[in-house]
Automatic annotation (TrEMBL):
EC number: 2.6.1.19, 2.6.1.22
Record key words, sorted: Aminotransferase, Pyridoxal phosphate, Transferase
Coiled-coil intervals: none
Gene: gabT
Name the record gives this protein: (S)-3-amino-2-methylpropionate transaminase
Pathway note: Amino-acid degradation; 4-aminobutanoate degradation
Protein's UniProt keywords contain Metal-binding: no
Entries under SUPFAM superfamilies matching the protein: PLP-dependent transferases (SSF53383)
Keyword Transferase: yes
Assigned protein family: Belongs to the class-III pyridoxal-phosphate-dependent aminotransferase family.
Needed co-factor(s): pyridoxal 5'-phosphate
Length: 446
């Protein structure tokens, strides 16, 4: 395994108040130029980033527990990614694969055939964003089955386009006032052990299946789409057996099973893909985020008979599989292998879970600690209840930021703090960040 090296000092340094003067200047300019609808978690502006740190425009070095929302798994400037991008951009930035194709696109698809779950014949298509991948997975499923209904789940997040908003559960901020939404999307109950009384995974799946059969009719369903671990909805890990039971039913009823691994993919959960934890083999898998070391790239990989059912020209887009993004993806995949980042994610998870589990024994406001690998979550509630405490969650995230640690919240109820560090973060920096987080929880939750 190749040792992880760093270009920047891996340290937390606060030289100014946050935000510092340069960030404040940028905030003023942003107000006059950027739509207010675009939010940002951190009030500081990035000047550099490497490994587990982001250095802001005022020279502050912050510890990154967000990875740009599970994107910079290999870090935000991995040397192999930087070299690959530089080499490609010096030759050409774009020809459009639908006009003049290039090898790197094919190489990425070959990698995805090998890396994604299942040893069946596969085909892939490359896009730019996770939402675009989800949209196209549904297109393929509808064409291949001749059916229109799509099943999504409570707490799901699939994107911000019209169809993916329809698939997404939470209204504010993602959907409110942006309708009407795409039709033929049906929502089913999710296995959410902390909130469904610890329902057995098979029983929870059977409940969803019963509703699908009664409310829609199996022969009308083109696809089921689900995140193997729900991300924006709160890092919800379904009970064991939930996913395999859904897959089994889908296979038996000609329904395409789509695993949305945009947030869980590329070593994040301790395996290459979260489906691997339960041996789930999806018919189509959607990917983005961690695929290309920070460059915008997304993909669908699926059964050859499904994807090849689409007529010529039915899939594509101007920038899909941009050559620079493909070069970055090949380098990022190589880096994941070099550093054995699935194992690293498992290690990060063990270290963090030990800290969180111990803390939860003392802090009744921690209602649940869950996740896999380096995709962990703390759900905060009013002690002794399951009543979400979003205010406490926000206060803890704010305190961490003041201490120079960037965290993200999530959850249908806004009461979840998630741990999403770059997988290349050092043990020392991870430990320091966990101490800041656990101290903030201890100070504010008591
Ligand atoms: C499972 C899953 N599917 C699809 C998507 C959408 O991916 P795009 O690349 O943001 O379109 C996501 C993106 N998640 C973070 C979105 C953050 C925000 O927009 O506020 C995801 O997690």
């Amino acid at each position: 395994m190749t040792e992880i090296s760093y270009r920047l000092p891996q340290r937390r340094v606060l030289s100014t108040a946050l935000p510092g003067p340069r960030s404040q200047e940028l905030a003023a300019r942003r107000k006059a130029a950027v739509a207010a609808g675009v939010g940002s978690t951190a009030p500081v502006y990035a000047a550099d980033a490497d490994g587990g740190v982001i250095v802001d425009v005022d020279g502050n070095s912050l510890i990154d527990l967000a990875a740009g929302i599970a994107v910079t798994n290999v870090g935000a400037s991995h040397p192999k990614v930087v070299a690959a991008v530089r080499d490609q951009i010096e030759r050409f930035a774009h020809t459009c694969f639908m006009v003049t194709p290039y090898e790197a696109y094919i190489q990425v698809c070959e990698e995805l055939s090998a890396l994604t779950p299942g040893d069946h014949e596969k085909r892939s298509v490359l896009f730019n964003s996770g939402a675009e991948a989800v949209e196209n997975a549904i297109k393929v499923a509808r064409l291949a089955t001749g059916r229109t209904a799509v099943v999504a789940f409570d707490h799901a997040y699939h994107g911000r386009t019209n169809l993916t908003m329809a698939l997404t559960a939470k209204s504010m901020p993602y959907k409110s006032h942006f309708g009407p939404f795409a039709p033929e999307v049906y929502r089913m109950p999710m296995s959410y052990p902390f909130r469904d009384g610890g329902l057995d995974g098979v029983a929870a799946a059977r409940e969803a299946i019963s509703r699908i059969e009664k409310q829609i009719g199996a022969d009308s369903v083109a696809a089921i789409i689900i995140e193997p671990i729900q991300g924006e909805g709160g890092f919800i890990v379904p009970a064991a057996g939930f996913l395999p039971t859904l897959v089994e039913w889908a296979r038996a009823n000609g329904v395409v099973f789509i695993a949305d691994e945009v947030q869980t993919g590329f070593a994040r959960t301790g395996e290459w893909f979260a489906c691997d934890h339960e041996g789930v083999v999806p018919d189509i898998i959607t990917m983005a985020k961690g695929i290309a070391g920070g460059m915008p790239l997304s993909a669908i990989t699926g059964r050859a008979d499904l994807l090849d059912a689409v007529h010529a020209g039915g899939l594509g887009g101007t920038y899909g599989g941009n050559p620079v993004a493909c070069a970055a993806a090949l380098a990022a995949i190589e880096a994941i292998r070099d550093h054995d980042l699935p194992a690293r994610a498992k290690h990060i998870g063990e270290v963090a879970m030990a800290r969180f589990t111990a803390l939860a024994q003392e802090i009744p406001a921690i209602g649940d600690v869950r996740g896999r690998g380096a995709m962990l979550a703390l759900e905060f509630v009013r002690p002794g209840t399951t009543e979400p405490d979003a205010a406490l969650t926000a206060a803890i995230a704010k305190r961490c930021l003041e201490q120079g640690v960037i965290t993200l919240t999530c959850g249908t109820f806004g009461n979840v703090i998630r741990l999403l560090p770059p997988l290349v973060i050092s043990d020392e920096l991870l430990d320091e960040a966990l101490t800041v987080l656990c101290t903030a929880i201890g100070d504010l939750a008591n």
